[in-house]
Amino acid sequence: MSGLDEVRGALPAAAVDVKLNLEAVLQGEALTPAQRWGVAVAAADVVVVSAELELAAWDVSGRKLWSTFVEPPWEYDVDADIVRLDVMGRRTQFPLVGGPPSP
Fold first, then answer.
1. pLDDT tens readout for residues 7-20
2. Cβ of 29: how many Cβ atoms within 10 Å?
3. Cα 32 to chain center, whole Å?
4. What are the distances in angstroms from CA 36 to CA 14, 24, 32, 83?
5. SS3 assignment, position 21
6. CA distance 5 to 25
């Protein structure tokens, strides 16, 4: 069993979307290896999921912690428990569990 299978297996049935997104993100070609690891092990209890227009964090029980709208071009990285987000040149950073500040 791979590490990805173990993480997906630990998620409850209610988190089926998180399971599918995890597989798509971690096995896809869209992320660099560093970003892939950031997604996979960000804080051991949090999964960061990126989509075309949204960045979100979920806990391992399948509860959405936060989400934020993003507009291309954008990129992010996770360093320990800090998310650094660059959306169209506007850079922000915020706690991984707490999420971005309210607009």
1. 667 666 666 776 77
2. 5
3. 14
4. 23, 11, 6, 14
5. helix
6. 13
Q: How far is CA 9 from CA 14, 19, 36, 51, in A?
A: 12, 8, 19, 22
| DSSP string of 22-79, one letter each residue | HHHHHHSSSS-HHHHHHHHHSSSSEEEEE-SSEEEEEETTS-EEEEEE--SSEEEEEE
83: which DSSP letter? E
Tokens of 102: 């309210």
Structure tokens belonging to residue 85:
């987000």
pTM, two decimal places: 0.58
Question: What pairing do the DSSP bridges indicate for beta strands 74-79 and 82-87?
Answer: antiparallel
- Reported as a pLDDT band with limits 50, 70 and 90, residue 1 is very low
pLDDT in tens, 38-81: 666 554 578 888 888 999 998 877 889 999 999 999 999 988 78
